[in-house]
Amino acid sequence: MGNLKFELLFVVSLVSYVNCIMFYLEPNSYKCLKEEVQANVLVIGNYEVSEALGQKVDYTIHDSKKHILSQKEDIPHGKQWKFSFSTETYDTFQICFVSHVPNNQRGIKQEVNLVIKRGNEGKSYEGIGEAAKLKPVEVELKRLEDLSESIVQDFARMRKNEEEMRDTNEATNTRVLYFSIFSICTLILLSTWQVFYLRRYFRLKKLIE
Description:
Elements: H1 2-15, E1 17-25, E2 30-37, E3 42-49, E4 56-62, E5 68-72, E6 81-86, E7 91-100, E8 110-118, H2 125-132, H3 136-204
Antiparallel strand pairs: 1-8, 2-7, 3-6, 3-8, 4-5, 4-7
Helix pairs in contact: 1-3, 2-3
C-alpha cells in the first residue's frame, strides 16, 4: 500500500503543472515572465497585487506573435483575480505586469502573487462532477484517467523530442565528417600545389636543378 501511495504521488508530480511565484514590482517599471506551453492546453492563473495608494498596475498576456490572450488595466488591489486561455499550438506566452505612478508621487514597490496552472490542474473536477452528477469516487477516477492520459502524452512527446534530437545529431555528425574530409583534401591539394610552385620558382632562379 505504501508503494502504491508513493507511485501515485510520483505520477501526480509529473503532471502537476503549477507555478507559484511572488515578486516585487518597482514603481513605474514592468516585469515579464515567460512560459512554454504545449498545444491544446488550458492555462488558468490567479494573481493578486498589494495595495498602494494612487498607483495602478496593468497586466497583459501575449504569445510569441504578440497576439493578446488576456489583459486587464488598473487591477483592483487586495483581491485575487483570475485569467484563463487555451493554446492551439506549442508556443511561448509572456505575462507582463506594468506599474504606473503619477508624476507628483514617489511611489512604492508592490507585491505581486501569481499562480499558474496548466492542463488537468486547471480543471474544476468538482464542477464536472456536479454537472454530470458523478459520485466522489467517479470524480476521482475521472481525474486519475485524465492524469494517465497526460502521462501518456508527455512520454509520447518526450519520445518524439528524443527522435528529433537523435536525427539532428546524426545529421550533424555526417556534415562534420564530410567537412573534415573536404578540409583534408583541400589541405593536401594546397600542399601539393605549393611544393610544385616552389620547385618551379627555385628552378627559374637556378637555385636547384
